[in-house]
Amino acid sequence: MKTYRFKLYRSKKNKKLHRLIDVAGRIYNHLIALHRRYYRLYGKHLNVNKLMKHITELKKRRRFAFWNQLGSQAIQDIAQRIERNYKLFFKNQKRGIKTAPPSFKKIRKYKSFTLKQTGYKMLEGNKIIIMGNVYKYSKSRNIEGKIKTLTVKRDLLGYIYIHLTCETKETAVEPRSGKSAT
Prior knowledge:
Strand content: 15-25%
Helix content: 25-40%
Structural class: alpha+beta
Shape: globular
Low-confidence stretches: none
Distance between the termini: 35 Å
Order of helices and strands: EHHHEEEEEE
Number of domains: 2
Number of strands: 7
Mean pLDDT: 89
Radius of gyration: 20 Å
């Protein structure tokens, strides 16, 4: 696996990506609140399958219709991130390591969302389609291998980067003899 990082050129279309990252932050906070409420009521951990079932019901409501802007796989990735964090929290609690459970994040400080299979398409040159819009990025090197995921990240200055995780052929590591060539 190899990850390439490219910076998107600034344009007015980037506002849509900023909005999508904000939507991902709202979904994250909602799911954290849901987890806490479920744990307070039942004393059990809410697994990812129940969480995804609940999300599909919420997306049908008018109040949460804006969640449909973000792809379903991106929402599933957010739920899986929360699931991983809670599992790690409970695992550390059993070991006696003092840690805090996953907490709320400010929406403006939420940084990324990940698209796994759909929602993006690479075009010729330095162009990419993300969620229906064409964006240009500064292509510093060629992409090798098959693209597995695309992560759209926002840094603290508001610049947007795309991270392409590609599956590449692993090169075999040659064992060293410990002797220098003379």
